[in-house]
Write a structure and sequence with these properties.
Layout: E1 20-32, E2 37-49, E3 53-58, H1 64-71, E4 79-84, E5 87-88, E6 96-99, H2 111-120, H3 126-139, H4 155-167, E7 173-177, H5 185-200, E8 208-213, H6 216-222, E9 225-229, E10 236-241, H7 253-261
Parallel strand pairs: 3-8, 3-9, 6-7, 7-8
Antiparallel strand pairs: 1-2, 1-4, 4-5, 9-10
Helix pairs in contact: 2-3, 2-4, 3-4
The structure holds adenosine-5'-diphosphate and magnesium ion.
Residues 64-65, 177 line the site of magnesium ion.
Length: 262
């Protein structure tokens, strides 16, 4: 076989031209403090369409996790509302999955059991649970680790479990809360690239991704569009279109193999 690199594949879905997945409208959120109220999110608006990976870039404390918790239906906005697939959100919606900064795995469960746990709330039967969990484990590169416990895994592998647990539900919308910030830079780079490869090849069931991060390079590498969140209070102060067509494929394959071998 010749040594010519395979041509860049077109994304399986068009970038940002599709159906509206999420609409965050005039969302405010405050928290009660001993002296009055702390306004964390001030009038945040954002729309996600099918085919997009959108970034929310902000300093720590700017309200990124609060915004994700609102979109995940775990807490309510004090003002404004969130529409998911055109309907107002009231609590956790089916089809919305989240990946957490510190993985949030159950330490007493194996990899397989952790991934299956993602399906338990949905009342999926045991046999189908097992099948789908194994498929997600395979997809994310964890095959052979089904029976390992989280403590036996590296940080990167633990976060792969976090991804498998989110992907196993076939989410429409994937929320990621600084998913790579607990990993060393090389491991983070490998995992980001693997994910983008799966996304670009159309192998993820997801329609849209929202990733919050404080890492500018990561946002540029991962996202089609970046919203910048100010601090105190968190307000969307800028929106940036990432100007490259395929930023995900910018790493030279030879360099990537080298990184993977370290
Ligand atoms: P980020 O994820 O951008 O670092 P967070 O959303 O975690 O920011 O927090 C934003 C601000 O909201 C912080 O000042 C934090 O202390 C405050 N906050 C978050 N959750 C709560 C809560 N449950 N009660 C009180 N204050 C909170
Ligand atoms: Mg946070």
């Amino acid at each position: 076989k010749d040594a010519v690199a395979t041509p860049v594949q077109a994304p399986a879905v068009s970038r940002g031209a599709g159906q509206e997945i999420l609409n965050v409208k005039d969302v405010c959120r405050g928290f009660d403090k001993t002296q009055g109220e702390l306004l964390v999110l001030d009038d945040v608006n954002l729309t996600l369409r099918e085919g997009e990976i959108v970034g929310m870039l902000g300093r720590s404390g700017s309200g990124k996790s609060t915004l994700l918790r609102i979109i995940a239906g775990l807490i309510q906005p004090t003002d404004g509302h969130v529409d998911y697939l055109g309907k107002p959100l009231s609590g956790p919606a089916e089809g919305v999955a989240m990946v957490f900064q510190t993985f949030a795995l159950f330490p007493w469960l194996t990899v397989l059991q952790n991934v299956e746990a993602g399906l338990e709330a949905q009342g999926v039967g045991a046999r189908e649970r097992r099948e789908r969990a194994l498929a997600a484990i395979d997809l994310i590169g964890l095959d052979g680790f089904e029976n390992a416990y989280p403590r036996e895994l590296s940080g990167g592998m633990r976060q792969r479990v976090g991804f498998a647990r989110a992907l196993v539900v076939d989410p429409t919308l994937l929320l990621m809360d600084e998913p790579f910030s607990a990993l060393d830079v090389l491991t983070a780079e490998t995992l980001r690239t693997d994910l983008l490869d799966l996304w670009t090849q159309g192998r993820l069931p997801i329609k849209s991704v929202l990733i919050v991060t404080h890492n500018i390079e990561e946002a540029v590498f991962m996202c089609d569009r970046i919203l910048v969140l100010s601090s105190n209070p968190g307000k969307v102060v800028a929106e940036i279109q990432v100007p490259f067509k395929h930023p995900r494929n910018r790493l030279d394959p030879a360099f990537r193999r080298l990184v993977d071998d370290i």
